[in-house]
Design a protein that fits this description.
This protein has 141 residues and is mostly helical. The chain contains 4 helices and no strands. The radius of gyration is 17 Å and the shape is elongated.
Length: 141
């Protein structure tokens, strides 16, 4: 198998593991972390930083890591010059961005719609990565 496909498989494995951790952390944040109102005096991080916010920070950092890995996968797909891989990578990257924007908006008002958008984005990204693996199998053989 060509080395570029082994890098692609490694990237997909990394994204899948990161997405699994991200989804579990997201469920924890959604269920157990509540954010104070933005106009609250206790919203000052220096005076009030609950330990549950550490999960939120880790969730956000993991999201940025997923964004970076999905962008690298997009660049790798363009380098491989396979239309199916590029389409799958663009889909994944777009939905990672959509999930990130929804997560950012969720911080301000905790509307359930943003949580649903993140969950649906997760499903679409997973499906896109499985399609990527399928396209690699078709191309490599």
């Amino acid at each position: 198998m060509d080395q570029k496909y082994s890098y692609a498989r490694l990237g997909i494995a990394a994204i899948m593991i990161l997405l699994l951790i991200q989804f579990i952390l997201g469920m924890y944040v959604n269920l157990y972390v509540s954010f104070p109102p933005l106009n609250s005096v206790t919203n000052n991080a220096a005076n009030h930083f609950p330990s549950s916010y550490i999960a939120v920070m880790f969730h956000m950092m993991l999201g940025f890591l997923i964004l970076i890995v999905s962008f690298i996968m997009l660049l790798l797909s363009v380098k491989i010059r396979n239309t199916k891989l590029v389409l799958s990578s663009v889909t994944s990257f777009a939905f990672v961005i959509m999930a990130g924007i929804s997560g950012f908006l969720f911080l301000f008002n905790e509307l359930n719609i943003y949580s649903i958008i993140m969950a649906v984005s997760f499903i679409i990204i997973i499906m896109s990565e499985f399609y990527y693996l399928y396209a690699i199998k078709l191309t490599a053989n």
